[in-house]
Design brief:
The protein is mostly helical. The protein is built from eight helices and two strands. Helix 2 packs across helix 5, helix 2 packs across helix 7 and helix 5 runs antiparallel to helix 6. The longest helix is centred in the middle third of the chain and has 27 residues. It is elongated, with a radius of gyration of 18 Å.
């Protein structure tokens, strides 16, 4: 039996897909903690009970959004790898950065969800952390910076600088 996410993907005009799309935007704008299921239901124009019928609890819907975003990022990385295969490292980096920037600017909820995941750790325990590490490993292999994903080790730093502000 297909998952709720698979059913939403298979029928983009379905109520499940409409709820998923609205949830993605709202979670991307407000984060998990500041998003309510009422906000999502209102954005879709449905009763909250309809949202629960299609997706269950808020955490279930959030998990589906994160899986959907993670899979979309992976597809984009695969597309980039297809475009840059066999090119010089400089060219691969140039194309990869250009394509990823275009993608992230066209879907502002994606970087927001990633940043919310890193800076707003919550009790629900659902994050993109594992997926992001996997994506970074895929990029390293695609750029010939690592021989394979198994030997690549990504170690995120706890604190970093962004626009002069330390997090």
């Amino acid at each position: 039996m297909p998952s709720r996410l698979e059913r939403a993907r298979n029928n983009p005009n379905s109520m499940k897909a409409k709820i998923l799309a609205a949830a993605r935007g709202i979670f991307g704008e407000f984060g998990y903690n500041d998003t309510t299921t009422r906000m999502i239901a209102k954005a879709v124009g449905i009763d909250i009970s309809t949202l629960y019928y299609h997706w269950g609890e808020k955490q279930d819907l959030y998990e589906a959004v994160l899986v959907d975003v993670g899979d979309e990022i992976q597809r984009k990385l695969n597309e980039i790898e297809h475009h840059v295969g066999g090119e010089s490292l400089g060219r691969r980096l140039e194309v990869a950065l250009d394509m990823m920037c275009d993608y992230l600017f066209s879907k502002p909820e994606v970087p927001n969800l990633i940043l919310f995941g890193y800076f707003n750790k919550t009790r629900h325990g659902v994050t993109l952390d594992l997926k992001i590490s996997e994506h970074i490993a895929n990029i390293a292999v695609a750029m010939d910076l690592a021989p394979d994903k198994k030997t690549f080790q990504f170690r995120p730093r706890r604190a970093f600088w962004l626009s002069g502000i330390r997090f």
